[in-house]
């Protein structure tokens, strides 16, 4: 599974990355987590407001931090 955190390094982007890492570790999910800070790459996903979360090329959320339960749901389905 490939997980991308879209954002420039703001506090919300960092919090989203920590949240995703927590869920991945707690559920023993085999995932590659990368941080995408290149604005052009972020725009390619159609994301205008960060943070954004992309799982296997699919944008799950943009502009806000999802709940831990929602992240777990996306990563375990």
Q: What is the third-level CATH name, the topology?
A: Glutaredoxin
Task: Give the total of beta strands.
Answer: 4
Just name the CATH architecture: 3-Layer(aba) Sandwich
Radius of gyration: 11 Å
Low-confidence stretches: none
Describe this structure in words.
- This protein has a single domain (2-76), classed as Glutaredoxin.
- Strands 2-1-3-4 form a four-stranded mixed β-sheet.
- Helix content is 40%, strand content 25%.
- Helix 1 packs across helix 3.
- The chain is globular and about 30 Å long.
- The chain is built from three helices and four strands.
- It has 77 residues and is of the alpha+beta class.
- InterPro entries: Thioredoxin-like_fold, Thioredoxin-like_sf, THIRX-like_proc.
- Pfam families: Thioredoxin_3.
- It comes from Methanococcoides burtonii (strain DSM 6242 / NBRC 107633 / OCM 468 / ACE-M).
Layout of SSEs?
Layout: E1 2-6, H1 11-26, E2 32-36, H2 39-44, E3 52-55, E4 58-62, H3 68-76
Parallel strand pairs: 1-2
Antiparallel strand pairs: 1-3, 3-4
Briefly characterize the structure.
With 77 residues, the protein is an alpha+beta fold.
Characteristic terms for this protein:
alpha+beta; Glutaredoxin; globular; 77 residues; 4-stranded mixed sheet
């Amino acid at each position: 599974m490939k997980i991308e955190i879209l954002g420039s390094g703001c506090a919300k982007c960092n919090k989203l990355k920590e949240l995703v890492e927590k869920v991945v570790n707690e559920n023993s999910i085999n995932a590659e987590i990368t941080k995408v800070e290149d604005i052009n790459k972020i725009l390619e996903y159609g994301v205008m407001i960060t943070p954004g979360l992309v799982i296997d090329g699919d944008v799950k959320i943009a502009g806000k931090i999802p709940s831990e339960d929602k992240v777990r749901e996306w990563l375990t389905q």
